[in-house]
């Protein structure tokens, strides 16, 4: 499906995300982190590079969370525990420099 | 956004109806030629997502622009890339007609 406004025969082929889909944060568990990130963006004039610490904090929040409903079944069915994001080492998400406090910015992909 | 650096973006979706809706989204990148450099690490797209009545959720996209973008002379004039998502309602059990088969 193509919504590009060109008249050629090229059509845009969507590609799936490398690490799959984010489950929805129905309970807004990480909303506070998201607000902090958005506030940072507004203050920095939407410079993504300036807000990588906040982005990292948001993703860490997602990795730490279990979906609230699954806590009720934790005794019986730990296989139902659903994180809002699979645990990934932060270097693999492009935050290597923020961990080591180095200035290089190479994103590492698994 | 700097090519090669991971970045986070948020969209917001709201279900204004009184019924739960199951949706699937797909995305588009403009300009078309920039799409090949757009790499999603994780997003909310392609999988069915359920929105309860009157629910509003934040939908994150975690991505990076391939650093080769900066090397491509055709991209020299591109300083704005627009990522858009379209949310479709998923229809259960829909059987698409296969041409030539009955």
UniProtKB/TrEMBL annotation, chain A:
UniProt signal peptide: none
Keyword Lyase recorded: no
Single biological process term from Gene Ontology: mitochondrial respiratory chain complex IV assembly
Subcellular location, record wording: Cytoplasm
GO cellular component: mitochondrial intermembrane space
Stretches the record annotates as Disordered: 1-20
InterPro entries recorded: COX19, Cys_alpha_HP_mot_SF
Biased composition regions of type Polar residues, renumbered to the chain: 1-12
Keyword terms: Cytoplasm, Disulfide bond
Family: Belongs to the COX19 family.
Protein's name in the database: Cytochrome c oxidase assembly protein COX19
Organism: Nicator chloris
Taxonomic classification: Eukaryota, Metazoa, Chordata, Craniata, Vertebrata
From TrEMBL, chain B:
A GO molecular-function descriptor: copper ion binding
Top-level taxon of the source organism: Eukaryota
Main location: mitochondrion
A cellular component term, taken from the record's GO annotations: mitochondrial inner membrane
Keywords, alphabetical: Membrane, Transmembrane, Transmembrane helix
Record Gene3D superfamilies: Ctag/Cox11
Localization (cell): Mitochondrion inner membrane
Keyword Membrane: yes
Keyword Transmembrane helix: yes
InterPro entries: CtaG/Cox11_dom_sf, Cyt_c_oxidase_assmbl_CtaG
Cited function: Exerts its effect at some terminal stage of cytochrome c oxidase synthesis, probably by being involved in the insertion of the copper B into subunit I.
PANTHER family found in the cross-reference section: CYTOCHROME C OXIDASE ASSEMBLY PROTEIN COX11, MITOCHONDRIAL-RELATED (PTHR21320:SF3), CYTOCHROME C OXIDASE ASSEMBLY PROTEIN COX11-RELATED (PTHR21320)
Protein name according to UniProt: Cytochrome c oxidase assembly protein COX11, mitochondrial
Species of the source: Nicator chloris
Lineage summary: Eukaryota, Metazoa, Chordata, Craniata, Vertebrata
Record gene name: Cox11
